[in-house]
Each structure stands twice: as C-alpha cells, then as structure tokens.
Specification:
Blueprint (H helix, E strand, L loop, with lengths): L1 H12 L2 H24 L5 H8 L3 H18 L3 H5 L5 H30 L7 H27 L4 H25 L3 H7 L5 H7 L2 E3 H27 L5 H28 L2 H4 E3 L10 H8 L5 E5 L8 H13 L3 E5 L22 E4 L4 E4 L5 E6 L4 E7 L1 H13 L7 E6 L8 H9 L3 E6 L10 E7 L7 H12 L3 E5 L8 H8 L4 E2 L3 E3 L13 E2 L2 E2 L15 E2 L4 E2 L7 E8 L5 E3 L15 E2 L3 E9 L5 E7 L7 H6 L3 H14 L12 E2 L9 H40 L1
Parallel strand pairs: 3-4, 9-10, 9-11, 11-12, 12-23
Antiparallel strand pairs: 1-2, 3-5, 5-6, 7-8, 8-24, 13-18, 14-20, 15-17, 16-19, 19-22, 20-21, 22-23
Helix pairs in contact: 1-6, 2-3, 2-4, 2-6, 2-22, 3-7, 3-10, 4-7, 4-8, 6-7, 6-11, 7-8, 7-10, 7-11, 8-9, 10-11, 11-12, 17-21, 18-19
C-alpha cells in the first residue's frame, strides 16, 4: 500500500492536476478570506470555509476522475487485479494520495487563524473545529469521487458523475425540504453531506458528524472495491455465486454504516458534542442543569418548525435540554401541517422556530425573536446578531410552567408621583425572571401588600406625601426589598428623600459631569460610563460598560453599625457635580460645584432578624432604565437590572433563574490597510499563481527529459 501511495502522490505533482487542485481551493479561499476576515474583520474562518464548500463539487471531480477510470481505460486494471497487493490496500493507497493533496491545501488554510491572531482576539477553538470539519467533508467528497471514477472508464464521465453525486449531497437538505416529511425524505436525507458540516462551522465538535463523514467515506471506498472486484468475478464461471456474495457484502456494508450512525445519535449530546465556542454558546449553566435534572413534572417543548428546517443552533440547545431529563420532551410541529396549532396557547401567531413550553399547570410562548439579541447600526442601516438567549428564555419558561403560583414573585411599581414605568427590554427582563409586575398606588392602600417580593420606585417627579413615605419605610423596616431610581431634575422632594435618608443615603445636589474621556460616551460629559464594581448585583456586566446618562451622585456614611453599603457604579476622580447646570460654562470644577469621585449606584443591606434582610438598591439616574440607554451598551443595562432583580427577589440571587444573554460572536478585529493589501494579494493571486507555475514547470521538465532518456537508451 505504501508503494501505491508514493506512486500516486508523485503522479499528482508530476503533472498539473495536483497543483491546479491546490491552487483552485486556495484561490477561492483567499478571495473570501480577504472579504470576510481581512476587510470585514470577522475573526472566524468558518465564514470563509462555509462560503467555499461548494468548490469541492468542482475541484474534487477533477482530482478523482482519473483515479480508477484511467486504469480501466488503458487496461492496466488487469495488472492491478492480479497484483500481489490486496485490492483494498490498492484503493486505500490511491485514496490516501488524494487526501494528501487535499491536506496540503487545508494545512495552508490552518495557518490563517494564526495570521488573524496578530490583529486581535481570535477564537482558536472554533476556527480549528471548522478546519477539521472542512477536512472531513473534503475527504468524504474524495471518496465519493473515487467511487464515481470506478463506475466508468471515461475520465470525463467520471468527473460528471462525481459532480452529480456531490451536488446531490450538497443540496439534499433543500431537496428533502421541498418534498416534505415522508419516508422517502428520511431515506434521501441519509445522503446529506452539507448539514453535518454546519455543526463544525458553528463551533461544535460533533461526534455524530465525525462518524457520519467517516462512515460515508468508508462505505464509498468499500463500494469502490466491490465495483472493481465485480470485474474480476465477471471473468470467472461462478457468476451467480460471486454476484450474490457481492450483493450480500454491499448490504452488510450499508448495515454497518447505518448502525454506527444510529448508535451515535442515540447517545446523549453531552457525550457526542463538545462546545468549542469561546462564549460557550451551546453549553448549559449549572443553574439549568440542576433545575432540569430535578424536574418532577412532565414538560413538553413544542418547536414551531419542521425538524429539518429548524434553526440548527437552537436545535442543538434543545437536544442538550432533552438529554438532561426523562420528564422533558421536544416535539417539532411543522406549521405547514399544523397551521393552527399555536391557537391553543396564544391568539397571535408566533414566528417560525418559536417555542411553546407546556406543563399540566400552564404554558408560555417563547418567540424566536427573543432567542437572539440584535443591534442596529444607524450608519449602515443594518442589524447584526450580538447575543444568544435560548438558555435564558427556556430555563425561565421551564420554571414558570413548573412552579406553583405562590412561588412566582410579585414586583410592585409604585405610582401616583409621576414615576416612569418599565417598558421594552426591562419589562421583558422582569417576565424572564418569572415575576409579575403590578402597579401600586400608595394613596389607595393601607400598606404595601405582604406578597411583595420587591418594589420599584422609578424616578418620581412629584413628592411623596408623609403617609406614602411612611408606608415605604415601614415596608423596608420589615425586611422589604426596593429598587429606587432618582432624577437630578427633581431633587426638591423632601418626603421622597426621607426614605433614603432613613438608611443614611443622601442625594448629591446637581448633575454629574465626567471630565475623563475614557469614562464618558462620545466625549459628552453627562453621558457617564462609570466603573463597575465587582458584586453579586453586577455579576454579568463586570468588565463591560453601563451607560448612566444624566446622573446625580449619592453619598452614604463611611461606617455604620448595622447597615452594609456596597458601591455598584463609581465615577472617576475627575468627575464634578454641577449645582447650577443652566449657568455652567465648562464641565470642569467651578465655584459652587462639588468635586468627585461619586457613587452613582449603590446597595444598602440591613439584617432585620434572623430570617429577613432589608435590601435597598439606589440608582442616581432613572435614564439608566430606558431602552435608549440600554441600546448604547448592547443590553448591559438590562443585564445589570436582571442581576439586581435576582438579588432583591431571591435569597441567594439565583432563585429567579435569570441566565444572562450569551455573546453570539467575538468583536471584529482591525486589520491595517497595508495588511489587507498584502494578505489579499498573497492569498488570492501570488500563492495560486506560484502553485500553477510550479506545476507547469515540473510538467515541462518531465516532457523535456523523456526524449533525452529515450535517445540515451
């Protein structure tokens, strides 16, 4: 086999075929690498590899067309059939030679993530999983092309048949999608070369994909052996016996391949799929694992999509949920077959790929639009996916449908004093935390209801009455929880301020101006980007940014016997509180101003008794709790708000089950113009031309040396 491997390997580089194949693959890769990675700054080569996967449909038939057909055409196959080397070793040697040629191209591709790493943070795990998937896909295509070459003695026909086979495998998912969900689609779907590749391109090292590619490759090589072996048998007199033996062996080969794939698919995804993404997008948190494993009720997750057309990333997440508990089942409902299924749960039609989580107690619809988090670029009028929230939404829905009514916290928004109401992403965060929001007018109540898990006072514009303030104080003194947001425009509210002063917190006069360029947004001094302290109230945003525009400062005692103060957001030393903002001439310190730094968000905690702890969170800006401010920092204001809810409504901060949105991708890298120019020319022009020229030169030298050698003889 080694001798055949060496002979075939040399033959591909002693003519133009091998050089042309490598040049074609690298030229197309270089073109997309220039567009996606160098110019657009994407740190993922999976984008490029997905885009060039179709080149295998064209390049592989050129590489494989002569592998078997040429020997049959020149009748040298008779020598092969009588050679001392076994037929299997001969075919495998030829296959390894072609894989070696392809591996040269893949080896060059494997260097490109290292090149990108020089310009920024690059997810190496995801990139090399994608490279591995592309290599396995290419090896399978070569095996398919080799089988096509064994079916005919014409190289041209072999190339056409190989292209047809590969095109069919490439388009099979779309073809079966047009046919619909029938038995025939399941049979045809067994030959789907492109779908397994997508798992690798998504950053998931999928054992089912590895087994699929290896089994298809092995099956094609086995069938190639059978095609050649059949010609040997056709020269014998025992045609019937050998023919039946060939059919039986083919059936056994298919059975082994099918069995291997079925066994792997039945394994839990935690065994077969390794999450190689830098953000651990497919992995489930311990909170989810513990909750799902301990489910005692049956829960069904209906996905409004056919299984074949479902979002592959979401399907992977759902599979991991289903593997955790026998009480959890995922069912796909094709909207074309059951167009009115959703009407049992909601009046408005959810979008494709939405989910309905149902238990015996209740149900919740998780719309597909909430699974991904988007940002909008107003300069280019385009949107991009920033976050993946499938786990957060699903775990929240599971808790909602399995908890008793008494376990679902109630949050009261205080009204009657011109307060802002929560809306948009902040309202959705409350729902995600499985809390019910009810508005409460203190004037009509004797006290804050006993079922209140927490209260929210969001920027009152008129003062509380003494009675209203007393009700809030009484609630807090009994171990209540509150989130209070202030507005610098309405500071003359003595009764409202008395609630904070009860716990030693005072509002600093004026509006905070930031004079550190790195601590404000777009050099606007009142658009604060404060330093985030590492606490349980900020656990999901530490290391990022919070946008706190139009904020006032907050002061509190340095020491207290019974109250624990924890700053959450702090300005720089260069911050100033402008007490007369209307007449201010500069953001710097002027007469009458107050020098910083300032705390603009803090928490105060006080043990009331052995079982109750008062928790008070104060924000210096009500604007922090708006969608406009949240969009500036890609949802981090909402993330901090969710952290705060978890601490206020639960004893340990995790009982609400709020799981933050996972980053969908890393940020783009910045490649210099010179780097883009040099890299683009090298990848798309210089390297492919050098390869082709090398092949032409070697071929010319061989042709020149042949007459000389013959004349010498």
């Amino acid at each position: 086999m080694i001798a055949i491997l060496k002979r075939e390997w040399k033959s591909y580089f002693q003519n133009i075929t091998g050089w042309l194949f490598i040049a074609a693959v690298l030229a197309l890769y270089g073109l997309y690498f220039l567009a996606y990675n160098l110019r657009a700054g994407y740190p993922y080569v999976s984008y490029t590899l997905s885009a060039i996967s179709f080149i295998m449909l064209i390049a592989v038939p050129i590489l494989t067309m002569r592998s078997m057909a040429e020997e049959r055409h020149s009748r040298t196959d008779q020598l092969v059939l009588t050679a001392p080397v076994s037929l299997g070793k001969m075919i495998f040697g030829k296959f390894l030679a072609m894989v070696g040629v392809f591996t040269v191209a893949v080896a060059v591709i494997a260097v490109t993530p290292l090149v990108l790493a020089a310009f920024g943070t690059v997810p190496m795990g995801e990139n090399y999983v994608a490279v591995l998937g592309f290599w396995l896909y290419g090896c399978t295509c070569i095996a398919v092309g080799m089988l096509a070459s064994a079916l005919t003695e014409s190289q041209v026909i072999a190339a056409v048949v190989a292209f047809a086979f590969l095109f069919l495998g490439y388009m099979m998912n779309s073809i079966t999608g047009l046919i619909g969900d029938h038995l025939i689609t399941k049979v045809l779907g067994a030959y789907d070369l492109y779908t397994p590749l997508q798992s690798f391109m998504s950053g998931c090292l999928d054992l089912t994909g590895v087994v699929y590619f290896v089994s298809v490759t092995g099956l094609c090589l086995f069938l190639t052996c059978q095609c050649v072996q059949k010609r040997r048998w056709s020269m014998t007199t025992k045609k019937l016996t050998t023919g039946m033996f060939s059919v039986a062996m083919i059936v056994v080969g298919f059975a082994v391949a099918i069995a291997a794939n079925l066994v792997v698919k039945e394994m839990p995804s935690s065994w077969t799929a390794v999450d190689a993404t830098s953000t651990k997008m497919y992995s489930l948190t311990d909170t989810t694992k513990d909750y799902v494993k301990n489910l005692s009720q049956d829960v069904t997750i209906y996905v409004l999509s056919s299984e074949k057309s479902a979002d592959s990333t979401l399907a992977e997440t759902l599979q991991r949920y289903e593997d955790l508990s026998k009480h959890l089942k995922v069912v796909y409902k094709d909207p074309e077959k059951s167009p009115n299924f959703y009407q049992q749960y909601t009046d408005s039609a959810p979008s494709q790929n939405s989910m309905i989580v149902e238990s015996d107690a209740r149900s919740r619809v998780v719309d597909y639009s909430d699974v991904y988090e988007y940002s909008y670029d107003y300069s280019t009028y385009s949107s991009s996916v920033d976050g993946y929230d499938a786990e957060g939404q699903l775990t929240s829905a599971l808790q909602y449908v399995t908890k008793a009514d008494s376990e679902l916290p109630v949050i009261y928004e205080i009204t009657g004093h011109g307060e802002n109401t929560l809306s948009g992403g902040f309202s959705e965060a409350v729902e995600k935390a499985n809390m019910t929001v009810s508005q409460l007018t203190l004037l009509t109540e004797d006290a804050i209801p006993e079922d209140a898990a927490a209260i929210i006072i969001n920027g009152p514009t008129s003062d509380f009455s003494e009675d209203d303030a007393a009700k809030v104080k009484e609630y807090l003194q009994g171990g209540g929880r509150a989130l209070i947001a202030c507005s610098f425009e309405y500071q003359d509210l003595p009764n409202f301020a008395s609630v904070l002063e009860t716990y030693g917190i005072e509002r600093v006069a004026g509006i905070v101006m930031e004079n550190s360029a790195s601590a404000c947004y777009r050099s606007t001094p009142y658009y604060l980007l404060p330093e985030i302290e590492s606490t349980a109230y900020t656990s999901s945003v530490t290391g990022g940014y919070i946008f706190a525009p139009y904020s006032e400062g907050l002061s509190y005692p340095e020491e207290s016997e019974d109250i624990t103060y924890t700053p959450l957001l702090v300005t720089s030393d260069q911050a100033v509180s402008k007490t007369d903002v209307a007449n201010a001439e500069t953001s710097e310190l002027e007469d009458g101003d107050i020098a910083g730094p300032f705390t603009i968000a803090l928490t105060a905690e006080q043990d009331v008794d052995d079982d109750n702890t008062m928790k008070l969170v104060v924000f210096g800006s009500t604007e922090m709790l708006t969608d406009n401010a949240d969009s500036i920092v890609s949802g981090r204001n909402v993330s901090m708000f969710s952290d705060v809810l978890g601490q206020l409504a639960g004893d340990d901060g995790e009982s609400t089950g709020v799981i933050p949105v996972k980053e969908y991708t890393l940020g783009t890298i910045t490649v210099t113009s010179l780097g883009t120019l040099i890299g683009g020319l090298a990848a798309t022009v210089i390297l492919p031309i050098l390869l082709i020229v090398t092949g032409v030169v070697i071929l010319s030298l061989i042709h020149i040396s042949e007459p000389t050698r013959r004349s010498y003889i």
